[in-house]
Fold this sequence. Notes:
The chain is of the alpha/beta class. The chain has helices at about 10-25, 65-70, 75-90, 100-110, 140-155, 170-180, 200-210, 225-235, 245-255, 265-275, 285-290, 320, 325-335, and strands spanning about 1-5, 30-35, 55-60, 95, 115-120, 130-135, 185-190, 215-220, 240-245, 260-265, 280, 300. Helix content is about 40%, strand content about 15%. A 6-stranded parallel β-sheet has the order 3-2-1-4-5-6, with helices on both faces. Strands 9-8-7-10-11-12 form a 6-stranded parallel β-sheet, sandwiched between helices.
Amino acid sequence: MKVLIVRVGAMGDVLxxxxxxxxxxxxxxxxxxxxxxxxxxxxxLADGKKRGPVVNAVHLAPTKDWSRKPLSWATLTSVLxxxxxxxxxxxxxxxxxxxxxxxAVIGRMAGVKRFVGYADPREAVAAKFYRTKLVRRGAHVVxxxxxxxxxxxxxxxKARAVALPWIEWAENWAEQExxxxxxxxxxxxxxxxxxxxxxxxxxxxxxxxxxRMGFDVVVNAPRxxxxxxxxxxxxxxxxxxxxxxxxxxxxxxLRRTDLFVGGDSGPTHLAAALAVxxxxxxxxxxxxxxxxxxxxxxxxxxxxxxVTSYKRVDEVExxxxxxxxxxxxxxxxxxxxxxxx
Length: 341
């Protein structure tokens, strides 16, 4: 049996799809399970040889590049190249675990009869591409993914903890350059859109408190000019240092992290997947649906009066903006293992 998973991004969404695929791998170790993913997130699935602990191979879909130059010859060549590879693989089943027009188009390019997706995908137009539409079941998106994939494969799947690829250069970078002292706390202040960002000033104040508690405090940044990370580092008045790394580097860094604090973002979900003790700060998004999922200890803080909204606005959600630093510190003490107390 050859199965193609389509979940091109983003980081948190790929991580939330992985537990279902890990369950399928455990149930059917002899199956070929491949994944179509945006190039930016491939390190969550495979090493430099495009192989990983869950999937046999990945097909790279550089969707960000396609969006930048949708009418260019390079984009056309890339899209046609991906289509050729997908058709050549001759899959028996394709499952769209994303539910957008883009993912549906990519899945349809494989040219298989068994193309499965949600009956109510994120973008309604995606459903027009599926040959089989399944009812969404479960509260959390991880549960929904396991139900979708399980029904598509004729199995009862229960989401499993995941293993992530081991990429040697990234592990060496983290060990030799990024991690300077332990215990280490990583702050993930960015993510998605502004409404989900706890204020930089409060992250800065928290960094000062963490420094006093004995932590080396790091602010995660995808780029050296990342506005959010720079603002947090500045607000910390020297208590936190900024570490810039790509996805592979972040995986390696978090493997060596003793505590993570962040909002509803990819790095927070990655920390949870890697069983890092995590405090997650939620505002406009519902943790019952999108919260961190993993085998470790996680404490989610969200004001009961926060308004659930997935609108991509810049202004921080009102109740999240007022979340006190003291509440975050209390949550940290609750989840710290005895050795770090």
